[in-house]
Specification:
eight-stranded parallel β-barrel, 25% helix, TIM Barrel, 24 strands, alpha/beta, 503 residues, single chain
Length: 503
């Protein structure tokens, strides 16, 4: 099979910044307890934070982490999580039907962010709490002067303000599964009023409002439009959430599911631009795709889980090679829309549908999906180039689907060009010819591929290195033309040095 691609530095889509490579940490399952926080672990630091997990987060170069939810936040009181740990209450946690001890809370999360070099992205409870709680948490986190809340922060060991910039105005408020579900009119109004109150405390914060949770939800198709009619000029981003799944064991459709995700993004952009026109606004609204991943492996076992446990093992998907390829396709898609998608959060970070998986009291491993995210985070920061792709295709439930999907990112400062490519074919190797003739001097650095003879191969606690990126051979670069062979069902990263002058 043969395919072609053309990338020109004169045709840029937009800048892919660090925030595109964020993640998500929710108080559910073992994401926090047994994930980032385990005081009895032999590798825990003085605060009970697992050093091995922090090392993997730093390896991923995770830019921002959305916290504390997720569905969890809609029945959550942030005040339960601050102050002396022995005085913090144990609560029934209504999203995941477990017990929340509040031993890891707001201040611990801020310390964890500092240690891992990530930016905090805080979600406020606009479901069962409201405007006052939202402005109070901003004051606690960001206000420098002598108020009761800033003094309370100082008493809890943090004299200097945290300076949190990113704030989410609730979570999935259109969903019937949500505590405090709201109509578009009610949510649009409370988002507007909360934004006013929060910005009165700190005018420099950036706000993310809920949008339709996923495209085509029954009775919710215009929910986001009606929200934006009420709060457009008070927010900076809208929040998009979508997961890919292969419950029907149809790999072709699974690999094509990003086409549906792309329709979702394009519909959201159109909705934002419609609201901009109606508001006669000069401001362009951007997208925060702050929950995305593959999620389906754990659904059956979670249907029979025991309730009211502390840190139960739920939503623990063990990922295989085809899952990693789909994660790579999602990354390509987000990059292709970097002009409007400015924030991305792989959901989640540890144990709960996550690239990092741990054993309580034991080791932490890299799941298969760890590697596409790692490579995109390392090499996918810069100017995304608009590509022209020519590829054979196949018919999927989402329409005609190219076997090749690819994008390229040019980092002029680092003198690097990276091509990210996926071969969706399950049987055939792909011969890729990629024209890069706009660049004067090119030097091939490496071609890394992720694939395996068994598409269901996994990295597990017992066998953590089953699926690793490998160096591909036979890749060449001559006179501005890159030629590479892409293995069947593979994620590929081709790195090229672009020096300013020929040596």
């Amino acid at each position: 099979m043969k395919a072609k691609a053309v990338f020109s530095k004169d045709f840029a889509i937009g800048e892919a910044g660090a925030r595109l490579y964020g993640s998500f940490l929710e108080h559910g399952g073992r994401a926090v307890y047994g994930g980032v926080y385990e005081p009895d672990h032999p590798n825990a630091d003085s605060q009970g934070l697992r050093r091995d997990v922090m090392d993997l987060v730093k390896e991923l170069q995770v830019s921002a982490v959305r916290y504390p939810g997720g569905n969890f936040v809609s029945a959550y009181d942030w005040r339960d999580s601050i102050g002396p740990k022995e005085k913090r209450p144990v609560r029934t946690e209504l999203a995941w039907l477990s017990l929340e001890t509040n031993q890891f809370g707001l201040d611990e999360f801020m310390d964890w962010c500092k240690k891992t070099g990530t930016e905090p992205m805080i979600t406020v409870n606009l479901a069962t709490r409201g405007i006052q709680e939202a402005r109070d948490i901003v004051e606690y986190c960001n206000f420098p002067a002598e108020t009761d809340l800033s003094r309370e922060r100082e008493k809890n060991g943090h004299k200097e303000p945290y300076g949190v910039k990113l704030w989410c105005l609730g979570n999935e408020m259109d969903g019937e599964w949500q505590m405090g579900q709201k109509t578009a009119e009610d949510y649009g109004e409370i988002a507007k009023q909360a934004a006013k109150a929060m910005r009165a405390v700190d005018p420099d914060i950036e706000l993310v409002a809920c949008y339709n949770t996923c495209l085509g939800m029954e009775n919710h198709t215009d929910w986001g439009d009606r929200v934006l009619e009420r709060c457009y000029d008070y927010i900076d981003y809208i929040s998009l959430h979508k997961y890919c799944a292969n419950e029907e064991k149809n790999t072709g459709d699974f690999l094509a599911s990003t086409l549906d995700m792309e329709k979702y993004i394009e519909a959201a952009i159109a909705s934002c631009d419609r609201a901009k026109a109606l508001a006669h606004s000069q401001k362009t609204l951007y997208l925060s795709f702050d929950e995305w991943n593959v999620w389906y492996h754990s659904l059956e076992q979670d249907a029979h889980r025991e309730k009211w446990l502390k840190g139960p093992a739920v939503l623990e998907d063990i990922y295989n090679v085809e899952d990693a390829v789909v994660v790579g396709l999602n990354l390509i898609l987000l990059l292709r829309h970097a002009d409007r998608v400015r924030i991305g959060c792989l959901a989640q970070l540890v144990n709960v549908i996550a690239p990092i998986f741990t054993r309580n009291g034991g080791e932490a491993i890299r799941q298969t999906i760890f590697y596409p995210f790692l490579q995109a985070s390392r090499y996918g920061r810069g100017t995304v180039l608009r590509g022209i792709l020519e590829s054979p295709s196949y018919e999927s439930r989402y329409g005609q689907t190219n076997y090749l999907d690819a994008t390229a990112v040019y980092n002029e400062e680092k003198e690097e060009l990276t091509v990210f490519a996926v071969n969706r074919s399950q049987e055939e190797e792909m011969e890729l010819e990629c024209s890069l003739r706009d660049f004067a001097f090119l030097e091939l650095v490496e071609h890394l591929g992720l694939h395996h003879p068994n598409r269901y191969a996994e990295n597990t606690l017992e066998h953590p290195d089953t699926c690793l990126p490998i160096s591909e051979t036979g890749t060449s670069l001559e006179e501005g033309v890159l030629r590479a062979k892409l293995a069947p069902l593979s994620w590929n990263v081709i790195r090229i040095r672009v020096p300013s002058e020929k040596k």
